[in-house]
Amino acid sequence: MKRPVVNFYGVALPTILISILGLVMVFSASSVKALQDSGSSVAIVGRQALLFLVGLAIALFLFRAPFAFLKRMSTLSLVLSLIALALPQLPVIGKEVNGNVNWISIAGFTMQPSEFAKLGMILWLAGVLARHEELKERQAPMGPSALAAQILPGIIAMIALILVGKDLGTALVFAAIAAGVLFVAGIQIRWFVAAIAALTLMAVVLILTQSNRIYRIKALLDPFSEEHYQNAGWQPAHSIMGLASGGIFGSGLGAGKQKWGNLAEAHTDFIFAVVGEEIGLLGTLTLLGLFAFLLLSMFKIALRSQTLLERFFVSGVALWFAIQIVVNIGSVTGLIPVIGVTLPLVSYGGSSLIATLAALGLVLGVAMRDPEVKSEITRKISRSLKYSQK
Length: 390
Description:
Helix content: over 70%
Number of domains: 1
Strand order of the largest sheet: 1-2-3
Subcellular location: Cell membrane
Largest sheet: 3 strands, antiparallel
Number of helices: 13
Protein name: peptidoglycan glycosyltransferase
Shape: globular
Keywords: Cell cycle, Cell division, Cell membrane, Cell shape, Cell wall biogenesis/degradation, Glycosyltransferase, Membrane, Peptidoglycan synthesis, Transferase, Transmembrane, Transmembrane helix
Structural class: mainly alpha
GO molecular function: lipid-linked peptidoglycan transporter activity; peptidoglycan glycosyltransferase activity
Pathway: Cell wall biogenesis; peptidoglycan biosynthesis
């Protein structure tokens, strides 16, 4: 387990296993809805499988990309992210889903640009922070105010564009990822505490200024109450029912009941409830174990990275995944209000899946640039080729 190559496999293997489990659960959770909407129970999972292959191809391409590509993209990613986040506000292609204007529709294809902007933000932050550390090493440090002047306008602009589309959940995820990357980069604690305080204040103000958000908070406290059950408490209540009815071993794949019209978004934001209902506590713990191994491997890759840019980037991707996992499962289990965040590699959603796989392709590329990892994998490939020729 101490060999560096284990970190490479610790990202690659869980990614494949979680993706396969995700496809199986998307099929199970979406079959009823797909049959009702299109007459085919495999319509939704078929799209997901196709998008998985597209994401895998992009991941393989980015895996082979050199460090120069990563460095170049880190300087362009802020502009590209801002453009992506502005697209949903264009009247021709912008699309509203569940009250949020954070989607675009072009030639019949629907996309959520904010998923790709998360990756762009992490790349940009990694680049800025790496240059800041390099200046410190050259005895020309950039003061905290100068660093803040470089970082804050970009973060504020991205969050503002998301809030224009009324997507508070995604805005909070962006802010949390940015705060996490700054913490990993070694920002002074007082600045980190100030950022958390500002984030908390923003969330409180935005919640208190919207009556439906206040109602969601109340419903979270008692989703089964007579007042909330038929409204904001419906999703969290039926999610908890699904998890509770699964027991240790689950009701069996395909045998879940909540997906039959009771649990909305069963194949997207609430797929973890279907996992718990159909494959039980053992299934959910196995999934969490795979996620834990994936995150641990990414942080270990970050520690062994050859450059500061790669270190901050891989740490940022790991934080992105960790935050989304916590938020998604917290919503499903009723610990936090329903925010509407996908479970990485598991939930249905092409934008999320492709962006996630692209990020993992870049992470594996960073791992492969470790001389020990590269030499061991090259040696194993050579040995395998010799055996196959015999």
